[in-house]
Every structure is written in C-alpha cells, then in structure tokens.
Design a protein that fits this description.
mainly alpha
C-alpha cells in the first residue's frame, strides 16, 4: 500500500527506519541486558534508554503522519474505523 502513496515516502522511511533501528537495539544482547537492568531512577540520564525513547517518538510521529494524512483516504478511514 505504501507504494501507492508516494507523497508519504519520507513518512514511510521514518516509520520503518525507526522501527528497524529499535528492533536492532533489542536484538543486541548487550543493549537488551543493559535496558533490562536499568532502573527507573537512572533511565532519564542513560544514553541507550534515551536513544530507544527517541526512536519510539519518531515511530509514533510517523504513524500519526501516516494515519492522519489529509491527502489520502487514510485520515477518513482512521477517524471512522481506527479511533474508538
């Protein structure tokens, strides 16, 4: 479907790129262990956690751009069927 919405190419790169990078972080045993052992008190100052957090924000922002795009029918479909 993404190929039919060429005006959303950058949005698709944002969503898929951030998702891929986040999954890559979780696939790295060292990073995953670091995040699992990280305490809530230390999370705000931890660069690995901050990177993962930024990726999640990029992913979220991309999804919002995609599903609420006014140039395609996705905005209408999202409002009618995706938001409860």
């Amino acid at each position: 479907m993404l190929h039919r919405l060429g005006h959303l190419d950058e949005t698709a790169k944002k969503v898929l790129g951030s998702y891929n990078e986040f999954i890559g972080m979780l696939a790295d045993e060292k990073i995953r262990s670091h995040l699992e052992e990280l305490t809530e008190e230390n999370a705000d100052n931890d660069p690995v956690h901050q990177q993962a957090r930024q990726l999640s924000h990029t992913f979220r922002d991309g999804l919002l751009e995609f599903f609420f795009d006014p140039k395609s029918e996705l905005e209408v479909l999202t409002k009618n069927y995706g938001v409860f």
